[in-house]
Specification:
By secondary structure, the chain is α+β, with helices and mostly antiparallel strands. Helices cover 40% and strands 15% of the residues. The protein has two domains: 87 residues, Cobalamin-binding domain (Rossmann fold, 3-Layer(aba) Sandwich); 240 residues, Vitamin B12-dependent methionine synthase, activation domain (Cobalamin-dependent Methionine Synthase, domain 1), CATH 3.10.196.10. Strand 5 and strand 6 form a beta hairpin.
């Protein structure tokens, strides 16, 4: 919980400095109650909790609209007051209902990876990655284009056309001048599961790492470890990719010249190209692992995870402990491709993605932790 405690300290510092601007907080380490009872209480100003990036974007849109701003602030303060009041006196604890048995994940044949070596990828051509860009995220989330981006681009909406010209210009310059450079590292590991714990094994059969994942408290009661065999050697893959080296400095130089939109577009493009790199690499791993995507599977379908297997990143609801990043760093050494890990287990540069990859055909996204 280091990052959550640091947010409390930061809220105190902001208050001491006389800052009262609305404060957005979120991330896997936070809950709505912690925000109300610890962060908002220390800050004093309006403090908004977002469970994910899209929720944060929606809250920001409400906050910056004169029509919805006051209602949002009133609702947030009322919710936080209720949570804070509830935190002072614990309600009677009812006897817990018996937990349902976990859904039985079917056993499947284990596909063999081509090797168990560490692979570093240097200077992956951006032309391989740009087709995997999520345009809804790039134009909608980062550049503020409202509505279904694909349709707006197809219909040559004036705002969409203006942004497309900027983005394509930045793409061309990034490719020509090497402003965005794509590096990655990946490796398969032998693995065994026991309950909620996934153990990775080295070449000598000894454990080199363990991850313990939460199980859903209700519903299907899934856990990521369910997707790995207990009775025979199985395999998982780890990877980390980045497209952020040097981008911050170039964007700052453009901003200093007054090229604000281009500066923002470069940083947004780097972030989404790193996400595209993760999609491209995952597709490559599926092919090397022996279960390539069918030819008819489109990139749009891949971006919706309509493929065999699953990739997850630490900090998300199925594997919320960001501290597990430290284990991935020890195993893969992403520092050697230019990604540092902060004290709060965040990646620097921001335009980076790390992941744990499962091959099980029934593997799917799920939420294992409450809001």
């Amino acid at each position: 919980m280091k990052s959550a405690q640091q947010m409390v300290v930061t809220a105190q510092d902001l208050r001491a400095a006389g800052i009262e601007a609305p404060l957005f907080v979120g991330g896997a380490a936070l809950t709505r109650k912690f925000t109300a009872t610890r962060i908002a209480a220390e800050y004093g100003g309006l403090t908004l909790y977002a469970k994910d990036a899209m929720d944060g974007l929606d809250l920001a849109n409400q906050l910056f609209s004169a029509v919805t701003r006051d209602a949002l602030a009133e609702r947030v303060r009322a919710e936080q007051a209720a949570l804070a009041e509830g935190g002072r006196e614990a309600p009677p604890v009812a006897a817990p209902a018996p937990a349902a048995a976990p859904t039985r994940v079917p056993r499947v044949e284990v596909p063999m990876p081509p090797d168990l070596e560490r692979h570093a990828l240097r200077e992956v051509p951006l032309a391989h990655l740009f087709p995997y860009l999520n345009l809804q995220m790039l134009y909608g989330k980062h550049l503020g284009l409202r509505g279904p981006v694909a349709r707006l681009l197809d219909e040559r909406d004036p705002k969409a056309e203006e942004l497309r010209a900027v983005v394509e210009g930045v793409q061309a310059e990034a490719t020509r001048e090497g402003l965005i450079r794509a590096h990655g590292v990946y490796q398969w590991y032998r693995a065994r599961a026991a309950g909620e714990t996934l153990t990775l094994l080295g070449a000598d059969g000894e454990a080199v790492a363990r991850f313990t994942f939460p199980r859903q408290p209700a519903g299907e009661r899934l856990c990521l470890a369910d997707y790995v065999r207990e009775d025979v050697d199985d395999y998982v893959a780890l990877f980390a990719v980045t497209c952020g080296a040097g981008v911050r400095d170039v964007a700052a130089a453009w901003k200093d010249r007054g090229e604000y939109l281009r500066s923002h577009a470069l940083q947004a493009l780097a972030i989404e190209t790193a996400e595209a790199f993760a999609e491209w690499l995952h597709a490559r791993l599926r092919t090397l692992w022996g279960f390539p995507d069918p030819p008819e599977l489109s990139v749009a379908d891949k971006l919706k995870a309509r493929y065999h297997g699953l990739r997850v990143s630490f900090g998300y609801p199925a594997c919320p402990d960001l501290a597990d990043q430290a284990t991935l760093w020890r195993l893969l050494r992403p520092d050697e491709i230019g990604i540092a890990l902060t004290e709060g287990y965040m990646m620097d540069p921001e335009a980076s993605v790390s992941a744990l990859v499962f091959h099980h055909p029934a593997a799917k996204y799920f939420k294992a932790t409450p809001d």
